[in-house]
Amino acid sequence: MKIILTTLILVLLFTPAFCRADNQITTKEKHFIGSSLFILANFSNDPPSFYQLNYGYRITPKDILIFEAITWKYDAPVGIPYGPSFGSSKERFPGYVRDIGIGLAYQRFLYKGLYSTLHATPFIQQYFKPDHKKIQTGFQLFLTLRFGYHFKFFKDRFFIEPSVAFTHWPINTNLPASFKKIEDRWPNYFLFEPGIHFGFNF
Q: Which residues are CB-neighbours of 104 under 8 A, at least 6 positions away?
């Protein structure tokens, strides 16, 4: 977690110094591929095995459709808010969850590089014991509303998008009873989740 927070802070501090000053959305390329800098968490002591691949298509200079393929694992409810219980070993599941999903997002630029994005990702959730033995499979619909800023580099070939997100999962089915007992103690949303996406235009 420390490496993620350090990276977020460094990018937020130094990105404006290296990007184009006007930052108008004038990218002529129709397509991009990208991911999330959360992949750096895979180098931590407790890696989430997080992988993400995005493909974006610009309908207009301000309207973008994004297809996302995401997988990761976690061992505690993702609705635990910032505070003493966040990251606490007392809130861990008796095992872990592996999510696999393909989602769709719509991104709209509001003013210069300022944007909002609405994501909808259906996840197949696989529940495992600590010994990696699979228990059962469930389903989750994961929704995200994201606000951020788009910074361009290298003649608009590369971009970075620091953001803050509000997440909600209205559908979360077929949890094992031991997982559900812990999950039900926390809300099915998370506020002010930091994020940094990056991509290459072509």
A: 65, 66, 67, 68, 119, 120, 121
pLDDT block averages, 10 residues each, the chain of length 202: 45 44 64 97 94 97 97 97 94 98 98 97 98 97 98 94 98 97 98 97 96
> Both tokens of residue 190?
């998370």
Q: Where are the domains of the chain?
A: 2-201
Provide the sign of the torsion angle of the four alpha carbons 165, 45, 80, 179, taken in this order: positive
Q: What's domain 2-201's architecture?
A: Beta Barrel (2.40)
Q: What is the pTM of this model?
A: 0.85
- Is residue 74 within 8 A of residue 48, CB to CB? The reply is yes
Which stretch of DSSP H or E encloses residue 165?
Answer: strand 158-173
